[in-house]
Amino acid sequence: MPGHAKLTELVERREPLTFRFADDGLVPNNPRWPMLVYTGAVTLPDGVDPASVFEDLFSTNGWGDSWRNGIFAYVHYHSRIHEVLGIARGTAEVRFGGDKGEVLTVKAGDVAILPAGTGHQRLSSSSDLLVVGAYPPFGTYDLCTRAEQHAEALRTIPKVGRPERDPVYGSDGPLLQAWPEG
């Protein structure tokens, strides 16, 4: 696992791509804050477990409960917590924002930060896809996939507060400007 000094060397400052998605009736998305994508933000050197780089980076910035896997192949969202996805290996076509959202190609080194309510679905991927996900220190993980969950999600999404730190850049990261409080 890389130490803190090494982590700093592996992170490249990137302006985020921002995406806002409308409520499509199934996926509410987030009415307040955009999804952020940092393309090529993390260098993954040979000889280092790429997933551990993301785990350490997210943990250093207060985002925990990390997991390693892929992205579900069905439309889903989380109504009670934000999520960060670090692409540790491979590539994937992911539709963000629900059926009327946007399809993005994500690749190793990319990071997507999804505010609560943001739909996501893997449409295709390379066979070696490995994603590291993590969550801010507050909120409760849930998995929403059904229309019956929509009304409750509209009540819970606005209650999920802004994280204190950007999962990639810490206390001075772009997330803090893109997701204003109040």
TrEMBL record:
Highest taxon of the lineage: Bacteria
InterPro entries hit by this protein: RmlC-like_jellyroll (IPR014710), RmlC_Cupin_sf (IPR011051), UCP019307_cupin (IPR014500), YjiB-like (IPR047121)
PANTHER family associated with the record: BLR7373 PROTEIN, CUPIN TYPE-1 DOMAIN-CONTAINING PROTEIN
Protein name per Swiss-Prot or TrEMBL: Cupin
Organism whose genome encodes this protein: Mesorhizobium tamadayense
